[in-house]
Amino acid sequence: MRLYELIAFIGLVVFFIGAMGVESADLFIPFLLIIIGALLLAFGAWKSGYLK
Predict the structure, then answer these.
(1) What is the number of structural domains in the chain?
(2) pTM of the prediction?
(3) Is the N or C terminus of the chain more exposed, i.e. has fewer CB atoms within 10 Å?
(4) Domain residues for 20?
(5) What rounded mean pLDDT belongs to the chain?
């Protein structure tokens, strides 16, 4: 697994961890995790060449 594919996978994991926390009372941290995870996923997919 290359570095950017690993970054995309970590972004996907962070995204789903944030999505599981949406049911909590404080929504700032889950939404922050969702945004960070989506950005990592998009960056990793772009640099890996999957988004051509």
Answers:
(1) 1
(2) 0.84
(3) C
(4) 1-25
(5) 91
